[in-house]
Amino acid sequence: MSQTTCIRDVDWLVGWDGRQHVYLRNSDLVFKGPDIIFVGDRYVERVDIELSGKDRMIIPGLVDIHAHPTTEPIRKGITDETLSPGFWHSSLYEHLPVFDPVDDHGRLACLKVALAELLLSGVTTLVDLSSPFEGWTETLLDSGIRSFVAPSFRDARWFTTNGHSLEYDWDYEAGQKAFRTAQKIVEGVENHPSGRLSAVVSPSQVDTCSEVLLRDSHALARDRGLSWTIHAAQSVTEFHEMQ
């Protein structure tokens, strides 16, 4: 049986009054298992665990609806500070491929760093858009965060040979293979017993996916009742390519 825990006399508590968020002072928050059972002035029932809320602020968990935790930690302070005048200063095409984890060990290290930062910042739900790798979903589960895995797939990769012209390396067979892998992952996490793992169908970018891949992936999302997301309108370069 789950224990009842009370966080007593919380200095600041962001609550919900049925219509809007409100700021409460010196309030109690009580939860039992995964359920919040009381928010208010004073909880008088018996509890199993009592914690002090003095000098603390409690807020609802934040939701990060778009993140790349398996790659971005290694790029922090690099791609966000790097100029790329040939691509209207978007780092996507010239610099992003340079600073990339080279193997699954690198991706796993990035993921663990990102999850620690997210949880410390109050994020309790994450939509993780990543290329699948061994240990991905297991690490998300071990962290305790609620996750929507969004395994990425595409038909083409970007590259440039001169720093101002964008080219595409198309491989439709590889795109379909990556889509099948993503489909297996999506199907595998549906109705996961933890209750903290869900899925999103996520073709990578609007300009790197064929019409067939976009239609097939959208049909998968529709048939399984899942959300579908894609990168679009990311840069001036993409706008010109799509015209």
How would you describe what is shown here?
Residues 57-235 form the Amidohydrolase-related domain. It comes from marine metagenome. With 243 residues, the protein is an alpha/beta fold. It has two domains: 4-58, Urease, subunit C, domain 1 (Roll); 62-242, Alpha-Beta Barrel (TIM Barrel), CATH 3.20.20. The protein has six helices and twelve strands. The chain has helices spanning 72-75, 104-120, 136-143, 172-189, 211-224, 236-242, and strands spanning 4-16, 21-32, 35-40, 49-52, 57-58, 62-67, 123-130, 146-153, 156-159, 167-170, 197-199, 202-203. Helix 2 packs parallel to helix 3 (136-143).
User: Termini separation (Å)?
Assistant: 60 Å
**Rg estimate, integer Å:** 22 Å
Number of domains: 2
Determine the fraction of residues in helical runs and give it as a percent range: 25-40%
| CATH architecture call of the largest domain | Alpha-Beta Barrel
Protein structure class: alpha/beta
Q: Give the tally of β-strands.
A: 12
Q: Which shape, going by the Cα principal axes?
A: elongated
The helix tally amounts to 6
Which fold name corresponds to the CATH topology of the largest domain? TIM Barrel
Run of helices and strands: EEEEEEHHEHEEEHEEHH
Query: If you average the pLDDT, what whole number results?
Result: 94
Q: How would you concisely characterize the structure shown here?
A:
This protein is an alpha/beta fold. Helices cover 28% and strands 30% of the residues. It has helices at 72-75, 104-120, 136-143, 172-189, 211-224, 236-242, and strands at residues 4-16, 21-32, 35-40, 49-52, 57-58, 62-67, 123-130, 146-153, 156-159, 167-170, 197-199, 202-203.
